[in-house]
Amino acid sequence: MVPQCLFWNNMKSASIAMILLLSLLSLLPRTIYSVYQDPRNFMKTNTFVSESFEVGPGLVAVKTFMNIKFPKGHIGVKSFDVEIVDQEGNSIPLYETYFHHWFAIKYLVNTTMLQNPEPHLDPIKAFTFKRNEGTCNGYLLPHYWGFGGESRGTSTNIPDPFALELGNPAKIPDGHEEQWLFNVMAIDTRGVEDRKGCSECRCDLFNLPKDFYNVTKDIHGEPLTTDYKGGLFCCQDNLQCKLRNGFQGPRRKLSLRYKIRWVDWNKCHIPVRFYILDSTDKVKSNGLETIHDCQTEYTIPENHNGDFLHVQKAKIPIEKGGYLIYGTAHMHTGAVNATLYGQDGRILCTTTPKYGTGNEVGNENGYAVGMSVCYPQPGSIKINDGETLTVESRYKNEFRTGAMGHFYIYLVDQLPNENIQNLIQNNLCLPITP
Ligand SMILES: *[C@@H]1O[C@H](CO)[C@@H](O)[C@H](O)[C@H]1NC(C)=O
Ligand SMILES: *[C@@H]1O[C@H](CO)[C@@H](O)[C@H](O)[C@H]1NC(C)=O
Ligand SMILES: *[C@@H]1O[C@H](CO)[C@@H](O)[C@H](O)[C@H]1NC(C)=O
């Protein structure tokens, strides 16, 4: 088994293809909480609720929800915020259900193929995943938006006049539709013996199958060795983390509640490119091209010499540069900060976690509940074509499994020039009509 969030190779299996097919064909009830349109800047906001999934004390849930509710049309997305709620819409605190991650992944569907299934064709062929601009290899870290426990406290806002352009009919082949899926991992830590260990997916706390180390393949498709002490591979759907003696608690259904803000695309908007740089990427070159080798997670070994910080570092060339307009990172509890450096050593962005101090949702004591976001003055930070960036993620130097250092940056080719500024000032940013 390979965690489905990171690897789509396993989707070749017919059973998964069938699940995809069924979830696309079934028409789900559309829960729409509110639609709000700001008449001044045409900003639209909608809050959606995903399908639900069931958890119980100590249980892991790893789910993929295909074809999630998403605004339609040729749009520019400005923000995408996600949290976990119960069936009554109450926000769930991290110490009850640890939100390991959610990823929003884009794909194209060949609707012709789906509507006229041909028995000799594998239905998986109808789906083409559309990853972000990089820089991980294959299908690793393909998502656009995605955080975890820090989700509630991390801004996803893209400043004006920038936005992520979606649904451009000129870029979607005929007979195809752009859709989104969620990949979610949540760990119910009610009543567990070791809350930190369960949240870090520590293998020895889970009821792994007997042949776990024989049959599980690592991120390179090699058998997992017993040196693997924890991380994504030990947090598989429906595994059970060790409970305190005699603890009992109710099962419950949870969902993702997500708020998207967007605008109809017009000629004043400037598209952003999304990148996710992994501090575990072992970049190599074969002389002709760069070869990325992202591990997506890492283990911080027991610290014997008392250093305060553990630093994980990658040097990553960026083929096509641009102006930096947003930067932050996905990290786990224990994170100290993460920094992105230019080739000359200049600091492009540092992001720092905020730790909760209370009991209430969004401020859970001891958890990383938010990451700061860099919003450089557009134009002030430029990454050159071919520039090699350095990503450093820093954690407290103590034994930790499943540590992540995923640096998210948005780049643009163009700044709002005089022409665009004039149009904005004179309210002439009309939607582009086909
Ligand atoms: C979509 O599927 C149809 C029917 O199977 C096929 O004829 C067509 O070539 C596919 N389109 C693309 C772009 O792959
Ligand atoms: C699984 O691995 C264990 C320990 O490495 C070994 O003793 C056992 O023979 C293996 N079983 C199979 C079915 O490969
Ligand atoms: C990251 O945190 C460490 C420890 O607090 C600090 O020494 C370092 O200066 C920070 N890095 C940046 C770039 O702020």
Question: What key phrases describe this protein's structure?
Answer:
434 residues, mainly beta, 2 domains, five-stranded antiparallel β-sheet, 25 strands, 8% helix, globular, disordered N terminus, binds 2-acetamido-2-deoxy-beta-D-glucopyranose
Write up this protein.
By secondary structure, the protein is mostly beta strands. The chain has 2 domains: 9-264, no CATH class; 273-418, Sandwich (Jelly Rolls). Helix content is 8%, strand content 38%. The protein has 5 helices and 25 strands. The strands form 7 sheets. It has a 6-stranded mixed β-sheet with strand order 1-2-10-4-8-11, with no helix packed on it. Strands 3, 5, 6, 7 and 9 form a 5-stranded antiparallel β-sheet that branches. Strands 12-25-17-22 form a 4-stranded antiparallel β-sheet, with no helix packed on it. Strand 18 (335-341) and strand 19 form a beta hairpin. The longest helix has 12 residues, at 14-25. Bound molecules: 2-acetamido-2-deoxy-beta-D-glucopyranose (NAG) (3 copies). One 2-acetamido-2-deoxy-beta-D-glucopyranose binds at residues 309, 336-337, 339, 350, 394. One 2-acetamido-2-deoxy-beta-D-glucopyranose binds at residues 110, 112-113, 173, 175.
